[in-house]
Design brief:
- This protein is of the alpha/beta class and about 325 residues long.
- The protein has a single domain, classed as Ribokinase (UDP-N-acetylmuramoyl-L-alanine:D-glutamate ligase, 3-Layer(aba) Sandwich), CATH 3.40.1190.
- It is about 40% helix and about 25% strand.
- Helix 3 crosses helix 11, helix 9 crosses helix 10 and helix 11 runs antiparallel to helix 12.
- The protein starts with a strand and ends with a helix.
Length: about 325
């Protein structure tokens, strides 16, 4: 029996969330609804404006794969997360967040000096999330941050699509996938953001080389990657990359394919206030489900319910007790 249900690798970022107006984007030349990389000076300037005009709404350890790992762990999976943070206060905050949740990690006290990555998450009244990110030391993530023993003792290796933006991190993702495949560990990957498939498609294709066992994406990402207009055509393209997949569709729910049959996952009603982390939590709940006795339809139902709760409150994930309450509510 594997020691871990899910081994994740991804960026380690501390999210700072702000409620903003659409006018703020126009005033500051920010592209709404996407993740944009900034240098440190640009982010510090943006942070000053956000603090002055709106004030901080929430701070939490984040990053796409990290949110997924948190969700899986809180639901009852045993998880490991490989990442890179600096020996600074923000890095301390991130590690405390991980370890307090019971997540094992490659991080220790021998961290390098530098600046831990931060993500300015800006939420507009329509609940859309827009992210401006300074990667900091997480840009130096490389194959040395992989812990092979933990990876080889896992059911799934989960890889974050955002790693495509950096050569070293992309190489680490590719090596993680290869090491997993050598030991029969299943591989899962998320596209993470429409910008990743729009602007880094060649790198994403390189990371997917040979395909994965499970692919997570939303409908827009699937269509962008496939270069098609219809969901049916996108599904055909995705099926060539992944043995199984989950495509989220926002308020329309999701569809999941278990390798033989497609399952339509109905949405749960929710008043959306913050979409940050919704897809990540869907993936985490789904991975928890399929590694703990649920079939794809049941796992999809749990994932849909979890993500509906995530969008109804601020922050990239729920409180620990909320995950347990939803499991009990669904009797899963």
């Amino acid at each position: 029996m594997a020691q871990y249900h899910v081994y994740g690798i991804g960026n380690a970022l501390v999210d700072k969330e702000f409620e903003v107006s659409d006018a703020f984007f126009a005033e500051n030349g920010i592209e709404k609804g996407q993740m944009t990389l900034l240098d440190q000076a640009q982010q510090e300037s943006l942070l000053t404006k956000l603090m002055d005009q709106f004030g901080l709404k929430n701070r939490a350890g984040g990053g796409s794969a990290a949110n997924t790992i948190f969700a899986a762990q809180y639901l009852g999976a045993k998880t490991f997360y490989s990442c890179n943070v600096a020996n600074d206060e923000t890095g301390d905050f991130f590690i405390k967040d991980l370890t307090s949740a019971g997540i094992d990690t490659n991080l220790g006290d021998d961290r390098e000096d530098g600046t831990t990555g931060k993500c300015m998450v800006m939420i507009t009244p329509d609940a859309e999330r827009t992210m401006n990110t300074y990667l900091g030391i997480t840009a130096d993530l490389n194959h040395e941050h992989i812990t092979p023993d933990a990876l080889h003792q896992s059911e799934y290796a989960y890889i974050e699509g955002y790693l495509v933006t950096n050569d070293g991190a992309r190489d680490a993702a590719i090596k993680c996938k290869r090491l997993a495949e050598e030991k029969g560990v299943k591989t899962a990957m998320t596209f993470s953001d429409p910008a990743m498939v729009q602007f880094f498609k060649d790198g994403i294709t390189e990371m997917l080389d040979g395909g994965v066992d499970l692919l997570f994406c939303n409908e827009q990402e699937a269509k962008l990657y496939a270069g098609v207009e219809s969901l049916e055509d996108a599904k055909q393209a995705i099926s060539k990359l992944a043995k199984t997949y989950a495509i989220t569709r926002g308020a329309k729910g999701a569809l999941v394919f278990d390798g033989q049959q497609e399952h339509i996952i109905e949405p749960f009603a929710a008043k959306a206030v913050d979409s940050n982390g919704a897809g990540d939590n869907f993936a985490g709940a789904f991975l928890y489900g399929i590694t703990n006795g649920l079939d794809f339809a049941q796992a999809g139902k749990l994932a849909s319910r979890i993500s509906s709760q995530v969008v109804s409150q601020f922050g990239p994930r729920l409180r620990a007790e909320q995950y347990a309450e939803i499991k009990a509510e669904l009797n899963l």
